[in-house]
């Protein structure tokens, strides 16, 4: 069975410092398996640090992923903003190539009042350009459009899976909390989780489950979707049945915990999963 790793979105709160290297060391101490580097406010890591991070991750056997900047919209009205968005993705890809974070999660676009199918075509075209450049530069990373939590954001489960099945270099980031919030509390039962995993396998083949990338936390929502992340035990996210479904389907890859108490909940997830 493929191995499922658990870790935190960003440096664990109990790390010696907020540096990525100390975060990775702490992940290892805690007995977790992975960590997502948060470049959400911009890529500020230099090349020298990236190479150090790579070394520390390899030494400690911690698998890395990264989250690209939030300021990114491949459907912006201003063409300059679209260029800048592609450039931010490439910047993230270049630094991740150096630090060994092979999976890069990003929020692709906003609808901006356009019809979703028009936005889909636009995002696809822009992604083809980005992927072409990644190939040209020989960057060994994989981009993962995320299932987003707000109704104004491109990124329903269907959009993300379609995009990833059309552009084979892509793979999804399935944020089960986002999907739950975006659908006003639906998608929170064992059967629904199993059916989502079935959709992933239908779209991407068995590899889609062997190499899954998940974001999870407790979550709140309003009529526009996601409002706030919560600790797992303070919200209704049915993580136990999700973990059961993942085990049942033999999913492998990474589960990145994005709750406010990061590592405590990542450990809760790992312990719950291992006890199944
Ligand atoms: Zn995200």
Q: Key features?
A:
276 residues; alpha/beta; TIM Barrel; eight-stranded parallel β-sheet; 46% helix; globular; binds zinc ion
Describe this structure in words.
The protein has 276 residues and is α/β, with parallel strands linked by helices. It has one domain: Alpha-Beta Barrel (TIM Barrel). Helices cover 46% and strands 17% of the residues. The protein contains 10 helices and 10 strands. It has an 8-stranded parallel beta sheet. β4, α4 and β5 form a beta-alpha-beta unit. α2 packs across α3 (79-99) and α3 crosses α4 (116-136). It is globular, with a radius of gyration of 17 Å. The model has no long low-confidence stretch (mean pLDDT 97). Residues 67, 105, 107, 146 line the site of zinc ion (ZN).
